[in-house]
Each structure stands twice: as structure tokens, then as C-alpha cells.
User: Which sequence fits this backbone?
């Protein structure tokens, strides 16, 4: 009975989404307050029904309701409860339900937190979100129903893909979707502004905290995904430029550009059309990512089931949403270049260059991702571009961003004084060169390590310099407003990230070894002693578990247990053992026994020493914190926001700048 | 005009995606070329399911083409494939060797007793170790091996009536035209 209730809840949610999408927009157009007032009520109602559907699917998993096809396909009696909950978004239908659930969370938050905004604007924003919701709910109901019955009911189900049975995978999709879907809010703000022909930029200030939070979540989601790939796939890699990874990375890049463009528009009135265009791009790329992942147009290691009917549906949806918004943009974007003039040496210029690089990088990633498709289209055969293409071009494009980054806070809007910048350049440059020389000696001239150290110190130290400057010059309590603290955190995070990427890349040691029990192999100054393999068992798997004792200079550092699991349905999954550290990770993956008849004999092991690998994720998490901090700035919460609407007093604009 | 550029750019993308969807309906996603095709089958030696004292190896099967079909009683998709093998198995004209994969022998026998046995011969790989040499992703999978012991065709996933008509039978017909070893 409950699955039918879930189905019914989805249908009701679709009807409410339709009301939310159409009535308020008509109301805003005809200036009918009653119709506009529908927006909040319909949004709340829709959220209630979608939440209900979501919880009912969770319930079906918890109760082993194998009469539901989706539950039977993705769980079984042996699967522990936490993975049964995670199985809700373990495959296509459920992850779409998660998508729409999160869209509703954002819409609901917006409905509640937008009391201070002009009603007509809120009506438009919620209306646009309602229309997005209609598309996704219809997609679920007509092509991907998670509540489909399976008769006769099997006594036991299949299994959640063992690759997904990992804590990292439990959090990765919801957090990632929070980011992905969060860009729908910035998108809705932009469309509302286009529809209303807003001449003012007040709406950009309202949109900023939402964009920052979404981007923060997206950063966290990508970090979680990267961590999962590292821990679970057993290759010791943390990023593969896989189409599905790229699908989340493109909105992130454009989102980073958008955050900066919004700041310019809000404070200086410039780049208005560009900000709108970027909002459209960021959300379009989120939709595009969903399309690429869900339609099966591209094959990837993520290997989702593909169905041409679904692909066609999302393509039509994509065409309507993105095509419609871009057409609207062409017709209604602000025609006059607004904003205050700025000179060559100014914060605007730096942001513009950064924006350009980030956007071009996103376009480059898109091109690389679509290359196999282009290959098919132009009849060039099965071709795809791999990490060399992405790695080379991406590094090239990010160099200007890294070079400009420490100057960000020092640069003033409009026009900056060059002597101050020269001083910063001198100090940060000196620190970078000095540490590069040290790194050169320590690593005996490893180019990437030197470049990594220099770039990381340049960004990190440059940012710290500004922190000190504020500390010296400003009175306590006014030193770091949240918005600035966020910016400094995120910029510092870029430095940490750079150190992680380049040092790991340069200094990692990897060895495939064949070891008999008792035998010792060394890499990077660590001795790994193999102590044999035992049988072990989990709730829904059996496996071989190796024991590896790691020693340095005769002292025992860690005992590691890499596993090779065989799940109930026969899938084999490697669980690498990782000994984490601030400056290095030790990583052991269990291979195959040399002689299958004698598992107590020699085995193949893969050993890694990965210095600074954790800095990659630490950097990402700092960027996430930066997004959250900036969004918490009091400036975004004051009631004054509502009053500035309609009062285009230049004096007021000035005071905000 | 320049404001329409993003729109036109996007139109190009939509055309490309539309093409992608059409392309995928024309081409099977499973068309991943297997590295084993046109290579000798791994030199396996596995016990018979119903009589483990007898072993079947690649060399004992040399001389005539045969189809290896990987199946297991726990495999849901094999249940879908099974009726197809029951009705059309005889029509393909080569012996079908059931490759029982990571299965308890009693479960496998019960499963065959219940659903019928389309196989000329069933071998059991209880540990699934020989399957690694074959590059088996999961069950069901099928390999067509020619008289010289070379893998000529592979299918990942259930054999459908369509796949049998359009892929398997042409592959077998091509074998028949070759000179006998």
C-alpha cells in the first residue's frame, strides 16, 4: 500500500508544482496579488508531498519491501540498514527522487527566508523554481518511477552496487546535489530579474548568499566524491576526469566565476548581463550534468543504466529550460553597459580575467567530455581525450588565476595604487621563491614539487599577508567581516589545494610487489611487512584480509588491513587500507594470490606512499567553508534589503559600495 | 545579435545530444570490444556440475565450435535469459556449454531441475577463478569459441532473441564458412 501512496504523493506534488510554476508568474505579469500569494503555499504543499514520497521510499528499503522493483534491485536482506538508506539514491530512479527532494528543500528555504523581499519578485522566483520542479517530477513519474511494483515479489533482492557500499558514497550524492540543485536558486533569481526587467541590482545582493551556499555544498560534494574514489577504487587516484566527475566540476567552475561576478554587480553595478548569463550557465551545466549522467549518451566508469526514452525526455527538458532562458536573456538582458568605470589596475579587471579563465576552463572540460560524442558524430571512430588533455589545458588556464589570486583583497574597486601591489608582489614572491629553492633541495629538483610549493606559498602566504594587514590596521571586531573571512578562507584553500595536488603528483611512490608472509618491501623509507591473509566476514560479504605491518627505522608505525571482499551477489570489491597522516598517506591494496590453491602463500600487493594527498581535500573543504562564511555576512540579512527596492538613489548605491 | 550567441551555441549542443541519443539507439552500448575476441580462450579445466570427478578442458573441446554461457542460480538476469535458451538454444546449431559461476552445486542443480536444462554440458567454477581469465564481468555472459579454441564473439548480459538472430547466428554462420581445422 505504501508504494502507491508514494506514487500518489508524487502526482499531487506534480500538480502543486504546476500551480506554483504557472499561477504566480501570471500573477506577477497581471499584477494580481492573490495569484502571487499562491507561490508560497504551493511551494510548501509540494515540499510536503515530495518529502512524503521520499520518506516512503526510505521506508520501503528499511522494511525490505521487495515488491517494489527499485528496492528489489538495489538491496537485499543482508544489507545493513545504513546502506539500505543510502541505496535510496544508489540508482537512477531514487537519485532523481533525491534531486527533486533537495530542490524542494531549497524552494522551501527560499519561501521561508524571503519575507523581506518584494512580493512580486518572490512570486517570479518561486514560479521559475516551480517550473523546474514540474520538469523533474514529470520525468520521474513518466519515465523513472521508483515505486514501480514487481510481481511476483522475490524472496530476496539484488544488491546495492558494492562500489557504493562505503561511507563516502553515503554522503557524496546528497551533498553534491545540494550544490548542483542550489544553483537553481541563483538561476531563478536571474530569470525573475529578466522577466521583471529589473533595472536595479538589488536582486543580485539577495541572490549572493544562496549562490555562495550552493557553491560551498558543491565543493564539499566534489571533495567527498574524490575521497571516495581514492579510498574505494583502489587505484590511489583522486580525480580521473571521468565524464561524471566533469559533470559536477563544470558547474563548480562556472559557480566560482559567478560568485565573483555577483560581487562586482552588487557593489559596482558592472557586469550585469554577464552575471545573469553565468547564473544561467551554472544551472544549465547542472542540468547538463544530469543529462549526461542519466541519458547514457556517454559511457563512463559510473555506468548508469541508460534508456533512450529518458535521454530524449531530459534533452527536451534541457532544450526548453536552457533554450528558453537564453532566448529570454537575448531579448531582455540589460542593453546598456552599466556600473562605474574602472581602470586597468583594479579589482574589476582581476575578477574579469579570473572569470574569463574559469569560464574557458569549463568550456574546455565540456569539449573534452563531449569529445567521444563528437567523434561518433564526425565519424572519427571511438575516440576520447584523457587526463593529458585535461591536465595540460587546465593547468595552463589556471596559471593566470593563481597569479592574480593573492592580489584580490588588496585590489580596490575602480582603481588601485600600484606601489602597494608591488610590495605585496615582492613579499609573496620572495616567500614563494625561497620555499621553491628549499623544495628543490629537499626533493632533489622535482619540477612539479617546486612549482607546487611556489604556487601554494604564493597563494597561501599572499592571503596571510592580507590577514596580518587587517589585523594591524583595523580595530578589533571590524577586522574580518564574514564576507571577507569567507573570501580569505577560500583563497587560502586554493593554496592548500595546490600544494596537495602538485606535491602528491610529484612525490608519490607506487609499487606493485609480490610478497610471501614474513617478507618485507620498502618504499619511501617505510618498510611494509606482509603478515599473511586471513578469512574475514562482514554483514553481507566474505573476504580475504591481509595484514601489513608498517615500520620506519625499526619502529612500528601502523598495522594495516587491506581487504578483498566478495559480496553476496558475487561482486568482488577491493577495500584498500589507508594509514592517514597530515603530511603523507600510506595506502595498501590487496591484489591476487600468486597461487589460488594456496591463499596462505605469496600475494600481489600494491603499495603507495602519497605525501600531502590530504591537502587536496583540506583545500576543498576550506573553499567550502569560505562559501558558507561569506553567505553568513550580516549585510545579506538586514531588513534594509526590502526597502531599497524601487529606490534607485545613487547615494544608497554609493554607501553599499 | 551578440546576445543571441549563447542561444545559438546551445542549439548546436542540443543537435549534438540529439544525435547522441539517436546514435545510441542504433548501436549497442555493450559493444565494448573485448580484448579476448580473436584470442585463444584461456586454457581452462573445470569439473562437470553433475559429476565433479570428470573434468572438461579447452583441449577436450577442440575441433568443433561451441558457446559458453555463464550462468548462476543467484543471478536474476540469468532467469530472464533462461527461457530464451530453452526455446532457441537448439536452433543455433552449436553445443551450449553451461558455465556455472560462483554457485553452490546443489543450488545450481535445483535451479536447472526447476527451470529446465538447455545445456549440452555444464561445468562448474565454484570459486570463480577461471572466470577471471575469461574476463567475466558478471553473469550472464556468453562466449562463442571456434574449433581452434579461439573466442570469436562475446556478449555481456542476457542473450535476447534479437541478439541471437542478429549477432550470434551470423557469427556462427561465418564460422561454418571457414575451412575445418
Assistant:
Amino acid at each position: 500500500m505504501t508504494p502507491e501512496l508514494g506514487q500518489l504523493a508524487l502526482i499531487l506534488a506534480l500538480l502543486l508544482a504546476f500551480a506554483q510554476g504557472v499561477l504566480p508568474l501570471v500573477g506577477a505579469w497581471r499584477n494580481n496579488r492573490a495569484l502571487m500569494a499562491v507561490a508560497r503555499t504551493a511551494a510548501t504543499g509540494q515540499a510536503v508531498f515530495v518529502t512524503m514520497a521520499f520518506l516512503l521510499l526510505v521506508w520501503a528499503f528499511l522494511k525490505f519491501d521487495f515488491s517494489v522493483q527499485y528496492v528489489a534491485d538495489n538491496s537485499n536482506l543482508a544489507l545493513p540498514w545504513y546502506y539500505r538508506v543510502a541505496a535510496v539514491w544508489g540508482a537512477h530512479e531514487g537519485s532523481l527522487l533525491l534531486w527533486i527532494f533537495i530542490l524542494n528543500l531549497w524552494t522551501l528555504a527560499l519561501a521561508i527566508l524571503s519575507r523581506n523581499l518584494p512580493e512580486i519578485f518572490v512570486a517570479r522566483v518561486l514560479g521559475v523554481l516551480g517550473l523546474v520542479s514540474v520538469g523533474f517530477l514529470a520525468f520521474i513519474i513518466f519515465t523513472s518511477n521508483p515505486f514501480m511494483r514487481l510481481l511476483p515479489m522475490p524472496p530476496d533482492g539484488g544488491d546495492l552496487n558494492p562500489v557504493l557500499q562505503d561511507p563516502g558514497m553515503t554522503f557524496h550524492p546528497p551533498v553534491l546535489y545540494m550544490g548542483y540543485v542550489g544553483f537553481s536558486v541563483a538561476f531563478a533569481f536571474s530569470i525573475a530579474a529578466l522577466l521583471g526587467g529589473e533595472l536595479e541590482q538589488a536582486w543580485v545582493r539577495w541572490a549572493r548568499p544562496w549562490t555562495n551556499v550552493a557553491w560551498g555544498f558543491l565543493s564539499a560534494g566534489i571533495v567527498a566524491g574524490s575521497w571516495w574514489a581514492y579510498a574505494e577504487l583502489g587505484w590511489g587516484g583522486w580525480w580521473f576526469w571521468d565524464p561524471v566527475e566533469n559533470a559536477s566540476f563544470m558547474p563548480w567552475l562556472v559557480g566560482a566565476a559567478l560568485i565573483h561576478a555577483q560581487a562586482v554587480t552588487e557593489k559596482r553595478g558592472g557586469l550585469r548581463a554577464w552575471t545573469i548569463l553565468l547564473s544561467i550557465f551554472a544551472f544549465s551545466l547542472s542540468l547538463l550534468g544530469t543529462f549526461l549522467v542519466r541519458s547514457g549518451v556517454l559511457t563512463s566508469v559510473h555506468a548508469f543504466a541508460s534508456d533512450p526514452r529518458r535521454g530524449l525526455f531530459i534533452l527536451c527538458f534541457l532544450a526548453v529550460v536552457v533554450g528558453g532562458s537564453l532566448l529570454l536573456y537575448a531579448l531582455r538582458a540589460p542593453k546598456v553597459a552599466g556600473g562605474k568605470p574602472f581602470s586597468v589596475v583594479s579589482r574589476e579587471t582581476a575578477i574579469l580575467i579570473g572569470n574569463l579563465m574559469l569560464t574557458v576552463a569549463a568550456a574546455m572540460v565540456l569539449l573534452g567530455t563531449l569529445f567521444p560524442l563528437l567523434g561518433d558524430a564526425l565519424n572519427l571512430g571511438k575516440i576520447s581525450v584523457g587526463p593529458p588533455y585535461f591536465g595540460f589545458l587546465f593547468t595552463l588556464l589556471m596559471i593566470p588565476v593563481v597569479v592574480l589570486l593573492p592580489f584580490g583583497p588588496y585590489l580596490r574597486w575602480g582603481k588601485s595604487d600600484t606601489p602597494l601591489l608591488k610590495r605585496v608582489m615582492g613579499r609573496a614572491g620572495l616567500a614563494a621563491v625561497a620555499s621553491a629553492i628549499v623544495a628543490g633541495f629537499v626533493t632533489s629538483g622535482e619540477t612539479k614539487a617546486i612549482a607546487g610549493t611556489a604556487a601554494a606559498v604564493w597563494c597561501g602566504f599572499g592571503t596571510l599577508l592580507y590577514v596580518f594587514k587587517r589585523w594591524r590596521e583595523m580595530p578589533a571586531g571590524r577586522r574580518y567581516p564574514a564576507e571577507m573571512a569567507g573570501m580569505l578562507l577560500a583563497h587560502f584553500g586554493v593554496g592548500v589545494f595546490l600544494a596537495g595536488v602538485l606535491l602528491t603528483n610529484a612525490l608519490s611512490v607506487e609499487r606493485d610487489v609480490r610478497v610471501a608472509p614474513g617478507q618485507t618491501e620498502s618504499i619511501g623509507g617505510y618498510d611494509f611487512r606482509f603478515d599473511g591473509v586471513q578469512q574475514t566476514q562482514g554483514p553481507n560479504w566474505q573476504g580475504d584480509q591481509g595484514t601489513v605491518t608498517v615500520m620506519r627505522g625499526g619502529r612500528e608505525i601502523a598495522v594495516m588491513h587491506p581487504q578483498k571482499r566478495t559480496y553476496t551477489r558475487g561482486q568482488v570489491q577491493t577495500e584498500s587500507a589507508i594509514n592517514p597522516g597530515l603530511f603523507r598517506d600510506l595506502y595498501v591494496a590487496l591484489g591476487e594470490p600468486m597461487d589460488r590453491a594456496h591463499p596462505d602463500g605469496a600475494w600481489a600487493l600494491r603499495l603507495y606512499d602519497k605525501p600531502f594527498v590530504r591537502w587536496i581535500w583540506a583545500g576543498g573543504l576550506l573553499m567550502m567553508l569560505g562559501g558558507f562564511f561569506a553567505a553568513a555576512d550580516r549585510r545579506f540579512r538586514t531588513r534594509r534589503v526590502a526597502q531599497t527596492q524601487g529606490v534607485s538613489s545613487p547615494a544608497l548605491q554609493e554607501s553599499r559600495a | 545579435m551578440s546576445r543571441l550567441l549563447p542561444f545559438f551555441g546551445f542549439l548546436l549542443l542540443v543537435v549534438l545530444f540529439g544525435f547522441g541519443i539517436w546514435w545510441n539507439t542504433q548501436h549497442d552500448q555493450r559493444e565494448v570490444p573485448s580484448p579476448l575476441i580473436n584470442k585463444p580462450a584461456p586454457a581452462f579445466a573445470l569439473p562437470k556440475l553433475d559429476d565433479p570427478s570428470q573434468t572438461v578442458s579447452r583441449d577436450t573441446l577442440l575441433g568443433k565450435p561451441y558457446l559458453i554461457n555463464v550462468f548462476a542460480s543467484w543471478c536474476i538476469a540469468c532467469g530472464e535469459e533462461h527461457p530464451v535458451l530453452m526455446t532457441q538454444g537448439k536452433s543455433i546449431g552449436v553445443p551450449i556449454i553451461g558455465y556455472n559461476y560462483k554457485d553452490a552445486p546443489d543450488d545450481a542443480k535445483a535451479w536447472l531441475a526447476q527451470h529446465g536444462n538447455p545445456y549440452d554440458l555444464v561445468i562448474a567454477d565454484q570459486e570463480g577463478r577461471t572466470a577471471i581469465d575469461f574476463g567475466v564481468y558478471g553473469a550472464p555472459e556468453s562466449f562463442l569459441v571456434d574449433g581452434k579454441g579461439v573466442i570469436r564473439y562475446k556478449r555481456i548480459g542476457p542473450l535476447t532473441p534479437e541478439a541471437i538472430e542478429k549477432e550470434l547466428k551470423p557469427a556462427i554462420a561465418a564460422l561454418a564458412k571457414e575451412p575445418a581445422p
User: Anything to note?
Assistant: The longest strand of chain A covers residues 526-537. The two ends of chain A are 58 Å apart (CA to CA). Chain A touches chain B at residues 154, 158, 273, 277, 280-281, 284, 288, 291, 295-299, 306, 308, 311-312, 315, 318-319, 322-323, 326-327, 329-330, 333, 370, 373-374, 376-377, 568-571, 592, 596 (CB under 8 Å).
